[in-house]
Design a protein that fits this description.
- The structure is a homodimer.
- By secondary structure, chain A is α/β, with parallel strands linked by helices.
- Helices cover 37% and strands 19% of the residues of chain A.
- Chain A is built from 15 helices and 22 strands.
- The N and C termini of chain A lie far apart (53 Å).
- Chains A and B meet through strand 5, strand 6, helix 8, helix 15 and strand 19 of A and strand 5, strand 6, helix 8, helix 15 and strand 19 of B.
Chain lengths: 519, 519
């Protein structure tokens, strides 16, 4: 480990105070404290970070795309320089294997570069021009031009389960910076070492690229006070959050009570139901069982897209798939969960459902597979609640028409998945129609874990999956969350941003009098 | 008047109960009750309308664009058939002249047809396709396709000041129906006659076009109970509102406290500052004075885009413009305001600022022009608050750099306006940079009243101008408020909506592997 921890918050280009409450990371493998003592941000740290973000937001507002792209790429290369330390710390702090964080660092850097390409190209701003018609009767038609622009300072709350890709330098930070918004990160207390290294990568890039110091701050904290105060601070324009339903809702409520309410883009909770149609269960029971097992135990079952409810048709397919899932679950080794809190909740939730779960070394637990009868499942709504960790519930259905009953009580989901047989593409349409209205993503013959970072991805869905079903926290559309619309009426060309100047100096795709092109 | 009033709510294709509290319209000219007694919706009416909307939302979800376009065009032609009655009632209920409502009906029908064209063409859904790469290492890349889809039933709250264009058949209703969402309208109690005629035009179109009855409902009410219960009803997915800051905030708070919080797209309050630069004040004082006077008294000063604060450079320009504004204000006849409540608030607000306003016949008031010293204005924040009605405040500045002080305390605005002289285009850039971050629209050498209905329009802005600065309630982008995102991963082509099918049967503009075109 070459990294030297200072263990204080990042307040723009300065470091925070050492007077706040201290805390450490814990090793999920042993349950013991590891690494240095970190200092929670003080209220003064918080106020200074928000002030600096506010000043930076004026400077960032008109930063051209190529300068923002340079910053994002520099962050990516700085992360790669620190990759060995990041992987070591992330593994130590989460109990997950190194290989996972090799991949997650790659994903995070790829995501930063995707946003760099997006803002360098520039068409993402949705530039629209309606040209004037001075002769129109009864009133002349003005020249009207509009585009998306940076919203202002964004508070980013990190997830426990993706210490790199949904944390300090993750998708919320990348998309906010790409939009031209300064970021104040509330670091997750479970991985402060990984957080400090990522923050140092961003902070160095901010200096190297000549951006204002307030472009990036990161606050350490071991409790809820700093995060709550951050969302309530008048300088903050919006919030990005990935975490629990209770946590997300608490921030939504704080934001809604402000003098000036602001949006909280929270990605919260999902049980990601998987519907296996009869043909699929007959044709490939083992393949489906192996795939489902791999998906619900990936990352030790601590993914927001973990398939927690598995609907199987009663019959030989049910027996084959459930038998195989039981066998794999029984053979699985104990795994450490991310935090003591997550471990304790897992034990409580699985024991409530009838498991005899005790917990192993450190934050260790065993894989749990539950089976539920159809009516038992429908009547006991707690069966449909998310269990964070390596557990899933198998529900047998007699008739596919029964799914109507589940849909009527299903909450919003990040994903729903259908496994269909060779002849079932027509049969599934009705179910897609029904379930897609409550989901962000519909997966066919696959597994919901693994969220592709691309233009078309929707990592979203109705509440409680997220707070805004019209948005996504993964993929290029994530940038839209951190923007406002501005329109200019009869503006002199010299005053207009380049994106809206008449000759289209950036060569971006625009809508001009209703036509989409590079005119 | 050929229209026969039934005076009950519209519950899908049926009519509501006659047991609710009754109320009437009032003539602002006389202050007397006019027209029939209307029956407030009962709680049962409300529940039935939400249930019908919920059922309809399933049927509307996959309605093709050309069918929605047919409905919107039919609504427009039905409104035109009823135009004489609409104009007569709107004028009677608002005290505004007939000619205004000839124009407003035209604007409303034009808006409906604009959304018809938009959804018939189809590219508005922002379809995106990222094609698969089964060979990618370490993991195959899935096929991912996404688009915007209908969100669900929308509650629409009507404005007092635009009884047609921001009311029953106005922009919120048009954009929600265009998106494929059923609408439950909360009619404004100040213009029930106009509302019933517009509702009959929509209801007839719903039947004529074979849409489900629950596509459209309209609830009459004289108090706040029905509107509050509507926003709280679990069937409602989002809210569109145009009205006061207090009213909008109250609905935002109800929506935020729901088990499932929903967005309230509220367009609320704005003082629309106008900054006249020294060159402009020298070059064309009379033109600017006449334009400002026309704008702040248009519709008797009851526009959300009324220029309420006018910043003039001290000197000869100030004297010329203010002198002319005073002269025009002094010569202006008394005008009736929309409601007794608006009239009473206008009298209270203007008297607080030192006017000796008494009020005339009916809801009549006189035009008020206030002058404020720079420091007096900065110190007394109430001077910067919106006065709904024919009043404006002129503030003299010594040095244009003083505007920094105002910006620091300025709230979010629908518009800011700059008047610049022939040589001042360069000077204004700094001020545009500063003020546009707090506004939805920046107007140059014009007046903020008159909101063009077009692709590029932004009728929005930061709180308290609206609740979401990333949205607009006027123009084609308004449809985006009432959508959710859905993505399909590795879906069989037959399951995909036409917008995402591989061969692009609708021929819409899509993003395919990052490239924008009709592929």
């Amino acid at each position: 480990m070459s990294f030297e921890f200072k263990s204080t918050s990042f307040i723009g280009s300065e470091r925070g105070e050492k007077t706040g409450k201290t805390f450490t990371a814990f090793s999920p493998e042993t349950g013991e404290a590891v690494g240095p003592e970190f200092h929670s941000a003080t209220n003064d740290d918080l106020i200074r970070s928000c002030l600096q973000a506010s000043i930076a937001s004026h400077l960032l507002y008109r930063k051209p795309g190529h300068e923002k792209a340079e910053l994002l790429r520099k962050i990516a290369s700085n992360l790669e320089e620190r990759k060995a330390d990041i992987v070591e710390c992330a593994s130590l702090e989460t109990g997950l294997p190194n290989a996972r964080f090799e991949g997650e660092t790659g994903r995070t850097c790829g995501q930063l570069r995707m946003f760099a390409d997006l803002v360098e190209e520039g068409s993402w701003v949705d530039a629209r021009i309606d040209t004037a018609d001075p002769e129109r009767a009864p009133l002349p038609k003005p020249d009207v031009r509009s585009m998306k622009r940076a919203l202002g300072p964004i508070a980013v709350f990190c997830a426990s389960n993706f210490p790199i890709a949904f944390s300090v330098a993750g998708g919320d930070t990348a998309s906010a910076l790409a939009a031209g918004c300064p970021v104040v990160v509330n670091a997750h207390s479970a991985h402060p070492m990984t957080s400090e290294i990522a923050a140092s990568a961003i902070s160095a890039a901010v200096i190297e690229c000549g951006f204002p110091g307030g472009t990036f701050s990161m606050l350490f904290s071991s409790g809820y006070e700093i995060g709550s105060a951050l969302v309530a601070h008048p300088s903050i324009s919006a919030v990005g959050f990935t975490g629990s339903r209770a946590g997300g809702r608490a921030l939504m409520d704080i934001a809604a009570r402000r003098d000036e309410p602001i949006p909280v883009y929270a990605e919260m909770s999902s049980v990601n139901p998987v519907f296996v149609l009869p043909g699929a269960a007959e044709e490939r029971p083992e393949e489906i069982a192996d795939g489902l097992f791999g998906s619900f135990t990936l990352g030790y079952g601590q993914f927001c897209t973990k398939p927690g409810l598995i609907f199987l048709p009663m019959g030989s397919g049910y027996d084959a798939i459930t038998g195989r899932l039981k066998q794999l679950s029984g053979e699985a080794a104990s795994v450490p969960l991310l935090t003591k809190g997550i471990r304790d909740a897992f034990i409580a939730n699985t024991n409530e459902r009838g498991a005899a779960m005790k917990g192993g070394n450190g934050f260790g637990v065993d894989t749990c597979l539950f089976e539920a009868e159809w009516f038992e499942f429908l009547e006991d709504r707690s069966m449909a609640e998310e269990i964070f960790g390596p557990a899933a519930v198998v529900i047998g259905y007699e008739d596919i028409a029964d799914l109507h009953e589940y849909e009527a009580q299903m909450e919003g989901q990040l994903t729903v998945t259908f496994h269909i047989g060779d002849e079932e593409a027509d049969d599934v349409s009705e179910w897609v129609d029904l379930f897609e209205r409550k989901a962000g993503r519909v997966v066919f013959n696959g597994y919901p874990t693994g969220v592709e970072v691309c233009h078309a991805m929707v990592h979203g869905g109705p509440y409680p999956a997220t707070s805004f079903p019209g948005t996504t926290s993964v993929g290029t559309r994530a940038i839209e969350r951190f923007t406002k619309l501005v329109c200019y009426q009869d503006a002199p060309d010299s005053v207009l941003p380049d994106e809206l100047k008449d000759e289209n100096p950036l060569g971006i795709v625009r809508m001009r009098d209703g036509n989409i092109g590079r005119g």
